[in-house]
Specification:
Layout (H helix, E strand, L loop, with lengths): L10 H9 L9 E4 L2 E4 L5 H18 L3 E5 L15 E5 L15 E8 L3 H14 L4 E6 L4 E10 L5 E10 L3 E2 L10 E2 L9
Parallel strand pairs: 5-6
Antiparallel strand pairs: 1-2, 3-4, 4-5, 6-7, 7-8, 9-10
């Protein structure tokens, strides 16, 4: 009896697929642990939250960090996810030579409506394993912000975050390591239905 095996892609192979136009930006594919993963479709609430974060996050950052939106980050040896937002260290070349690595990242943000399970069960352990110190999920279904920090390796053999904080849509939160900057008012971000 034959068994099927999945192709495990390296970062170089993944980039080569893009160079050969095998993968198009419109395909909405990301590389997670060597597998090509189809990203979830974005609904209107996702797009509203994204638009509002694009408006509000720069007010909290000033010129101290770079805000990237739906751009890849590189997590060697075999992952290149595309979080909704990455707040990264400033670089003179704006990451022309390579996408940001985990050491460059201050905060990763995902906006989740239909993708909440994927963002918690696939991306969260991947980010923790790669030392991403802070990870936020804008949980649109529950209208809460889930804030994760302090990655650690669990005795059961998987990666997670020690600390989870939940913020309500009526609250404000400072960005990690930027308490001297204005806080993010969540009421200006969440798309509240009337």
């Amino acid at each position: 009896m034959l068994s099927a095996t999945l192709k495990h892609f390296s970062l170089a192979e993944y980039h080569r697929l893009a160079d050969l136009d095998f993968l198009q930006a419109s395909d909405r594919i990301e590389l997670i642990r060597g597998e090509l993963m189809q990203m979830a479709a974005k609904g209107t609430a996702h797009e509203v939250c994204l638009t509002r974060l694009l408006r509000e996050l720069p007010k909290c950052l000033g010129d101290d960090f770079t805000l990237r939106c739906q751009s890849p980050i590189t997590l060697p040896p075999d992952s290149e996810p595309e979080p909704d937002f990455a707040i990264v260290q400033n670089r003179a070349d704006d990451y022309l030579d390579h996408h940001p690595y985990s050491a460059d990242i201050l905060l990763l943000i995902e906006i989740s409506d239909s993708s909440i399970t994927y963002d918690r069960e696939v991306k969260l352990p991947l980010y923790a394993e790669n030392g991403v110190a802070d990870y936020w999920i804008f949980n649109l279904a529950e209208t809460i912000l889930e804030c994760y920090s302090e990655p650690y390796f669990k005795p059961t053999g998987s990666w997670a975050y020690r600390t989870q904080r939940v913020c309500l849509a009526t609250e404000a939160i400072a960005l990690p390591n930027l308490s001297d900057q204005p806080s993010l008012l969540l009421s200006k971000v969440f798309p509240l239905r009337r």
